[in-house]
Amino acid sequence: MEQSAAEQPSPPTPEQQERALEREIRRRTIVSFILFFLLGVAAVMGFRWLKGHPQDAGVQAPLRSVLNANEKIFDKTLSDGHLAKTYPVSAAATHVRVNGDVGMSPNFDPNTWKLRVIRAARDTLFLTLKDIQQLPKTEIVFDFKCIEGWSQVTHWAGVKFSDFVKQYHLDAQAAMKYVGLRTPDSAYYVGIDMPSALHPQTLLCYEMNGKPLPLNQGYPLRLIIPVKYGIKSIKRIGTMYFSDQRPPDYWFERGYDYFSGL
User: Fold this and answer.
1) Angstrom distance (rounded) from CA 102 to CA 88
2) In this structure, is the dihedral angle defined by the CA atoms of residues 207, 213, 217 and 221, taken in order, positive or negative?
3) What's the chain's Rg over C-alpha atoms?
4) Dihedral angle sign, alpha carbons of residues 236, 239, 241, 247
5) Dihedral, CA of residue 154, residue 234, residue 133 and residue 239, to nearest 10
6) CA–CA separation, 246 vs 176, rounded Å?
7) Considering the entire predicted model, what is its pTM?
8) Residue 140, phi then psi, degrees to nearest 5
9) What are phi and psi of 4, to 5 degrees?
10) Could you tell me the pLDDT band of residue 216, with boundaries at 50, 70 and 90?
11) pLDDT tens-place string over residues 109-149
12) Mean pLDDT of the chain
């Protein structure tokens, strides 16, 4: 049986609607404050838990485990077909930013510089810049990315690391997992996984914008490795060596990812 018009409930008045809205706002506010409080407690407890762990190469062990896991994942994505985007020379900056000055000792004498390539114990190859410049020159213009948050399209030239390996018969050394590089004063040093070092865009670089490298950009020789952040593009290379174990790495020891890939 249908209800009569008199028996049907009347719609809420504007005052009732306003009170209902106020109750809903109050309920949601209370829930939000409770969730905020619980999340805050969880964050504090998580921070204390994390700080209670010993450090591993500059960061707490659980964070280092995550970074190592990321490296294993992204290391599998690298191939010769994984190329950094390149640009025309006209797009390159004329005023190139410097990504750090560690290892740039002011008392460095470029006239006495030679690259020390340690092939094995008591077997070191010494090369001048002219020796390296005898190899085919390769140029690249790419977006250099720094961990400080800036990037800049820059123009570089030098010798492919893979060509360098072939020229100086370093096949046995290149079969190892890593190459280590350090500045003449040993203040800055990096470790590069061999697949990244042999990548077709990785250069032992001696020119910037068609001219010899400025001293503050690593003259006479630096690494340019577009598939990684700039922390791996070590300036003023003094020594090169090879290892199946991770070589020491300046920024890894300060809490950064060893692979540092893009």
Assistant:
1) 31
2) positive
3) 29
4) negative
5) 180
6) 11
7) 0.77
8) -150, 140
9) -75, 160
10) very high
11) 999 999 999 999 999 999 999 999 999 999 999 999 999 99
12) 89
